[in-house]
Structures are given as structure tokens and as C-alpha cells.
TrEMBL record:
The lineage of its organism: Eukaryota, Metazoa, Spiralia, Lophotrochozoa, Mollusca. It comes from Batillaria attramentaria. The keyword Coiled coil applies. This is Uncharacterized protein. Residues 33-148 form a coiled coil. Keywords: Coiled coil.
Length: 385
């Protein structure tokens, strides 16, 4: 029932937004954050407070139930003690009466003794009467505690049922929404999606085939053997973690996006998506995919070179340092164009560890100007480290 009421509430205000838009020019269309959203947020805030209060009441009831149970145990012990006391008093009273009867029948000196026995008998009867009243009060309190404990258990059971039912409904709703998000992205963007939880999805972009082909003159078999342990294929699988949050109207909105590859940033795409508020999620995934396919050839080439040469890729500066020469004493810096390998050529910007007679402008590979060509040429020129 609660879910139907909530869905009806969202549907009504969504229709209200739509009718507002139809009745006004586009420049005056209501924004996402409106009075309806604020009311929904307030309602959700009240719901959270009610849940917290319910949890607090549940904990208090658990503590109170424990106290009631302990009190019931103590009263039961008190009742048992009173019953033993009553039994003892009844036995004493019976003994006094038997003794009094015996003395009365004997006759000699019976007057004084009989008077004392009557006094003792009266005191015992008074104690017996008070003990019976105390026993009745104890049994009454014990019954009240048992009834209170039963009422607490029933209330706790209802609280458990309500909270569990609400959590199950919320989990089911979040799961349905996340499944819809995953289905849309997989259908329209040709990617693999995995739900981590009700708010997080990992989008997996598989690598394109034939990424890192060695340059002319490089033994392909040798390169494959050298790179076998590097597991290039695994490194070239992009995984983007998307975290969602529910907005004021109950819809999932992208809250953050993070790449598993340090050299591949998606922050600007996510910020643009959030700031503009335009474009669907599959369109955003398609943009990430296009950038990834553009970035993969460079990453594949870097991974291939790491298997064979001593290099240091500084991705933020778009440079690649190549360590060559005996003992690794020579460091060559290559500049990589931002659009490489689709546009531009790699250039040698500086060399450290060589004599002044070596001119940077005079160094250039003959076979091509790709990264692999440059790195192979520099190692052949100055020697392996």
C-alpha cells in the first residue's frame, strides 16, 4: 500500500510539471529543483526521521522487555518464597492448635499456658493473613508483568515486520531501477554492466582487436613472448564505476563516475553531463566509449613498449622518457601529440647524459615516427641500459 501511494504521489507531481511546461514558454519551464521536489525531499526526510524513531523505540522496547523479563523472574522467586513461608506458618499454626488442645485436656496449669498459646496462635494467624495478601499482590504484579511482556513482544514483532517490509520494498524498487539503467546502457551502448549494489554500476568496455601491432622490423613472435606475462589484454579493459543517487522525484541521477585506468580520465565528461543536464545516460556511455577507443591504441603501444624497453610514461605531460645507454645513464624525452596516433608525430625534445656534440635535430628514425620507432631507434643508437 505504501509503495502504491508513493508511486501515485510521484506520478501526480510529474504530471503537474508536465502541464506547467505545456502552459508556459520554454524559457519559463520549471527546473528540476521545484516546490514539488522540496516537498518530496521533506517527505523523505520525515520518513527517515520516522524510521530512526522506530529504531529508537525498538531498542527501548528491547531494553524494557529485558527489564520486564527480569522483574517477572524476581517476582516468581518472591511468590515461591511466600508460598514456602505460608506453608511454614500453616504448619506452626497447626502445631500450636494441637498443643493448645492437649494442654486444655490435661487441665493442670492449663489456664496460663492456654492464654499464651492463644496469643501465639493469634499472631500466627495475623502473619498468615498478611502473607496471603502479600502472595496475592505478588501474583497480581507477576501477571501484569507477563501481560506487559506479551504486549511488548507483539509491538516488537509488528515493528520488525514493518521495518523489514519497508526495507524489502525499497530494495526491490532500487533493484528494478538499477536493472532498467543497466538494460538501457547495454542495449544502446554495446557494453557490459555489473550492478555492485543498489546505487553503483560498473560499466565494462572491452578492448578492440589488433591494438598493439609492432613496427616494421620487430619480430612479432618475440614481442608476444616478451609480453605474455604482462597480460596486456587485462590492462586494456576499461571499467568505469558509476554511482547514482535518487533525486527529489524518485529518479536515479548520476552522482559520480570513476575510471579504473589512471591515464584515462572521464571527469570532464561526467561534469559536462551533470552541468548541462542534457543527454541520456547511454549517450554519455557512448562518448566514454568513443574516447576510450581513441585512447586505446596509445595505451596498447605504451604497454607493449614497457614489456621490451626501459621507459617512463608521464601521461599528464604527454611525454615518454626512454632510458638507454650503459648503466641507464642517458635519458631521452619524447613528446607525444594529444591526438596521437590519429594525428601528429612523436618528436624528440631533449637528451640528458650525452656530450654537447650530440644534436637532437640530427636524431630521427628512418622507418617511421611512431613511439615504437623512436624507442627502438634510441636504444639501437645509444645501447641498452
Amino acid at each position: 500500500m505504501k509503495v502504491q501511494v508513493k508511486d501515485k504521489f510521484v506520478e501526480t507531481f510529474t504530471r503537474h510539471h508536465f502541464l506547467q511546461s505545456l502552459a508556459a514558454p520554454q524559457s519559463e519551464w520549471p527546473l528540476l529543483v521545484s516546490q514539488a521536489d522540496k516537498e518530496m525531499q521533506n517527505a523523505k526526510s520525515h520518513l527517515r526521521e520516522a524510521k530512526q524513531l522506530s529504531e529508537h523505540q525498538k531498542n527501548n522496547m528491547l531494553q524494557l522487555n529485558s527489564v520486564v523479563v527480569q522483574g517477572s523472574i524476581l517476582y516468581q522467586a518472591h511468590v515461591d518464597s511466600l508460598k514456602e513461608k505460608l506453608h511454614t506458618l500453616e504448619e506452626l499454626l497447626e502445631e500450636v492448635r494441637v498443643t493448645q488442645k492437649t494442654l486444655s485436656e490435661s487441665g493442670a496449669g492449663a489456664g496460663v499456658v492456654s492464654k499464651d498459646m492463644e496469643n501465639q496462635s493469634a499472631e500466627l494467624e495475623k502473619l498468615l493473613h498478611e502473607s496471603r495478601k502479600e502472595l496475592l499482590r505478588a501474583e497480581h504484579h507477576k501477571t501484569q508483568l507477563e501481560m506487559e511482556a506479551a504486549s511488548l513482544r507483539a509491538t516488537l514483532q509488528q515493528l520488525h515486520f514493518t521495518l523489514d517490509e519497508d526495507e524489502e520494498l525499497m530494495d526491490a524498487t532500487c533493484l528494478r531501477r538499477m536493472q532498467k539503467v543497466i538494460s538501457d546502457m547495454e542495449e544502446l551502448s554495446d557494453v557490459l554492466c555489473h550492478a555492485v549494489n543498489s546505487n553503483t554500476v560498473v560499466v565494462e568496455f572491452p578492448p578492440r582487436p589488433c591494438l598493439a601491432q609492432p613496427s616494421t622490423g620487430v619480430n612479432t613472435t618475440e614481442a608476444n613472448v616478451s609480453c605474455h606475462n604482462a597480460d596486456i589484454g587485462r590492462d586494456l579493459i576499461l571499467k568505469v564505476t558509476m554511482t547514482f543517487k535518487e533525486d527529489g522525484l524518485g529518479y536515479l541521477r548520476l552522482h559520480s563516475m570513476e575510471s579504473n585506468i589512471d591515464s584515462f580520465s572521464v571527469d570532464d565528461l561526467w561534469k559536462e553531463h551533470c552541468e548541462n543536464g542534457t543527454g541520456s545516460l547511454p549517450q554519455l556511455v557512448a562518448r566514454v566509449k568513443a574516447r576510450w577507443f581513441s585512447h586505446m591504441p596509445l595505451l596498447a603501444e605504451i604497454n607493449y613498449l614497457r614489456c621490451r624497453y626501459a621507459i617512463d610514461w608521464i601521461q599528464k605531460e604527454n611525454i615518454l622518457r626512454v632510458i638507454v645507454g650503459k648503466g641507464g645513464g642517458i635519458v631521452c624525452t619524447l613528446e607525444i601529440p594529444p591526438a596521437y596516433p590519429h594525428q601528429g608525430q612523436v618528436t624528440l625534445s631533449s637528451i640528458m647524459g650525452v656530450s654537447d656534440t650530440v644534436q637532437v635535430d640530427n636524431l630521427k628514425p628512418l622507418t617511421g615516427l611512431r613511439l615504437q620507432d623512436w624507442v627502438q631507434y634510441l636504444e639501437e643508437t645509444f645501447g641498452k641500459p
